[in-house]
Design goal:
- This protein is α+β, with helices and mostly antiparallel strands and 658 residues long.
- The protein has five domains: 87 residues, Zinc finger, CHC2-typedomain (DNA Primase, Chain A, Alpha-Beta Complex), CATH 3.90.580.10; 139 residues, Alpha-Beta Complex (DNA primase DNAg catalytic core, N-terminal domain); 177 residues, Dna Topoisomerase Vi A Subunit, Chain: A, domain 2 (3-Layer(aba) Sandwich); 159 residues, no CATH class; 61 residues.
- Helix content is 49%, strand content 9%.
- It contains 27 helices and 16 strands.
- The strands form four sheets. A five-stranded antiparallel sheet has the order 1-2-3-4-5. A five-stranded mixed sheet has the order 13-12-14-15-16, sandwiched between helices.
- A hairpin with a 4-residue loop joins strand 3 and strand 4.
């Protein structure tokens, strides 16, 4: 069966080359590409490269080059139809049934390509003629000279109701084909179909292969019902699945590892003239999920650059809801907001390329834009209003399908929310120092080990987003500095060999005794390395074995065991952003979730330690291709965030292995 090019292109768009090749070749990230050992030749040094943005693989040792289809054909001896069937199933793309109707449908699509291409040529010729004089003058006033007009194949649709129709009829094109291509308008009460585009500057819309599939038209008259008009949906054109200028922007996006999405055709052209050829635009509608996926094929964090007006801000906020369910590790979007009242063309004219570059450099991450959107609802000066904010944010974060991303967003949001709490010493009111001052042995604990107060879990009386507020939050999370008189105290001595994650686990359970029974078996099975964390874990296991659950009794026993100073020193080992779990006021379910994540990461980290050393030993004994690939794979996991945040300073590097 012959498969139409549009089908093959859709499969390619949905399946990155690395996802297909990675099932057979162990790939390691190398800048914008992936590399691995050749599947075609035996080799010890990787010479096989994959580029997802360009959609191909290349093997330097064998000279073989191709896409996802040729890879299956080359590596598995699979015939082309079978390769298409397998990859279509993986991509979730239905295959056409080989029937006479399907054959006729493909022929019809090819005919429509021809019709639309003839229309594009007509519009181009009209722009260059005397009839296009005013349209050319308009384009030149906007800085779009002849070269730009030719690059983007700009044209002009005459004001005559039948100009295009009559031209295409002379070429043998039927009314039915013109209507199906979205070029004519017909109604039940209209006896004769007429041109859809009249007296408009025309912007051809291309598919990924560079074929014209539709048009956008900008009205020349100020009193036109619609300033911009797009082609209707056709068998070739689905506006929610196409990006304007994608065919031109792909190479520039690959070269720069960056893609920019603006609001309209003229914005794209202005950005291209300013030196940002990696620019595309949706087609007059809010950004869709399919368009976000297209952007991610070109860059991991596309920049959405919206006009500096209310409409631009609304578009940015709508894009947040579109992107949230689709987020994946390493895949997000950023937002570059233009100065108020300006679009890219205005900014380019006013400040040149430098002004645009400055705006792009200040692009804000998605999490920050989500926060900004929700805090704009109104004041946050009462518990009820802050609770409403929390509810809105949790509902938004709940849209995220990826569990890991959702958990990190939840932690980010909770950190921001804590910054809105009044400065009332959130943790101080219930910290151990105050409680232990009522016990016989609490004196030293109070003076030297007020560990929650020193843990950076204080509230901040500020409004998030302001410079003063951000400084207050940073100060509240920063570890305290010892005075000269206290610098020699054991509490401030360097704590070597201790892991921030191990400290978080033992102190988190210690701060919330109700979770002791929940986590003690997991903690007992973990591989700890820090001497202080090991000592405190041993005491926790004794407490759990004794069935001790009273918070005051646990504090007393920790003091009696001489571990009070160890507790205080471990607090300072913790990452400041994790110290919120030490506050008695922290919600138990949130603390439990954070501890569960830490336990999982600790388990995975130690597994990688073991696997990496085993791989290094295997390579030392047998310098084989398989052992090298194994070692490279484990090292790649260690060096990436997906490697469970393993402690790289404790792991051997490839360069250190003989």
């Amino acid at each position: 069966m012959r498969y139409p090019p549009s089908l093959l292109e859709e499969i390619r768009a949905r399946l990155p080359v690395s996802a297909v090749v990675g099932k057979r070749v162990r790939l390691i990230k190398a800048g914008r590409e992936w590399k691995g050992l050749s599947p075609f030749n035996a080799e010890k040094t990787p010479s096989f490269y994959v580029n997802d943005q360009k959609g191909f693989y290349h093997c330097f040792s064998s000279g073989k080059h191709g896409d996802i289809f040729s890879f299956l054909i080359e590596t598995e001896g699979m015939p082309f139809p079978e390769a298409v069937e397998r990859l279509a199933a993986e991509a979730g793309v239905p295959l056409p049934v080989s029937t006479p109707e399907a054959t006729r449908e493909e022929a019809r699509r090819n005919d429509l390509y021809e019709v639309v291409e003839l229309a594009a040529a007509f519009f181009e010729a009209t722009l260059a003629s005397n009839a296009g004089r005013e349209a050319r003058a308009y384009l030149e006033r906007r800085g779009m000279g002849l070269k730009t007009q030719q690059t983007f194949r700009l044209g002009y649709a005459p004001g005559d109701r039948f100009a295009l129709r009559d031209h295409l009829m002379q070429k043998g094109i039927s009314h039915e084909a013109m209507i199906e291509a979205g070029l004519l308008i017909t109604h039940e009460d209209t006896a004769v179909p007429y041109d859809r585009f009249r007296d408009r500057v025309m912007f051809p819309i291309h598919d990924q292969r560079g074929k014209v599939i539709a048009f956008g038209g900008r009205a020349m008259r100020t009193d036109a019902p619609a300033k911009y008009l797009n082609s209707s949906e056709t068998p070739l054109f689905h506006k929610g699945r196409v990006l304007y200028n994608l065919h031109n922007a792909r190479k520039a996006a690959s070269d720069k590892s960056e893609v920019i999405a603006v609001e309209g055709y003229v914005d794209v052209i202005a950005m291209t003239m300013a030196g940002f050829a990696q620019t595309v635009a949706p087609l007059g509608t809010a950004l869709t999920g399919d368009q976000v996926t297209l952007l991610w094929r070109m860059a991991d964090e596309p920049i959405l650059c919206f006009d500096g007006d209310a409409a631009g801000q609304r578009a940015a906020y709508r894009a947040i809801d579109t992107a949230l369910p689709l987020l994946a590790p390493g895949k997000s979007i950023r937002f570059a907001l233009l100065p108020e009242g300006q679009d890219p063309d205005d900014l380019f004219r006013a400040g040149g390329t430098e002004a645009i570059a400055t705006v792009l450099q200040q692009a804000r991450p998605l999490a920050e834009m989500l926060w900004a959107r929700e805090v704009e609802h109104g004041p946050l000066d009462t518990p009820e209003r802050r609770a409403a904010l929390e509810r809105r944010l949790k509902d938004a974060v709940g849209q995220i399908a990826d569990e890991t991303i959702r958990r990190h967003y939840g932690a980010d949001i909770m950190n921001r929310l804590r910054g809105l709490l009044p400065a009332q010493g959130v943790a101080r009111s219930e910290n151990w120092a105050q409680q232990s001052s009522r016990s016989k042995s609490g004196g030293d604990w109070k003076s030297n080990n007020d560990w929650r107060a020193n843990a950076g879990v204080r509230g901040g009386n500020y409004r998030s987003g302001s410079p003063r507020g951000n400084a207050a939050l940073a100060a509240s999370l920063a570890p305290p500095r010892a005075s000269a008189s206290l610098a020699s105290h054991p509490m401030f001595a360097p704590t070597r060999g201790e892991s921030p994650r191990e400290a978080m686990i033992v102190l988190g359970v210690l701060a919330h005794p109700a979770l002791l029974d929940v986590f003690i078996e997991d903690i007992a099975a973990l591989d700890f390395s820090g001497p202080l964390a090991l000592a405190l874990r041993a005491r926790l296991m004794e407490l759990a074995a004794d069935g001790e659950a009273d918070a005051q009794a646990i504090r007393d026993r920790i003091e009696m065991a001489g571990l009070a100073t160890s507790v205080a020193r471990l607090v300072h080992v913790m990452i400041p952003g994790d110290r919120w779990i030490l506050a008695a006021s922290s919600a138990e379910d949130e603390v439990s979730a954070a501890l569960r994540q830490a336990v999982t990461l600790q388990r995975r980290s130690r597994t990688l330690h073991t696997e990496l050393r085993a791989a290094a030993n295997a390579l030392a004994e047998d310098d084989s291709e398989a052992n090298l690939a194994w070692l490279m794979d484990i090292q790649a996991q260690v060096n990436s965030k997906k490697g469970a945040e393993a402690d790289e300073d404790q792991l051997p590097e490839l360069d250190d292995i003989n």
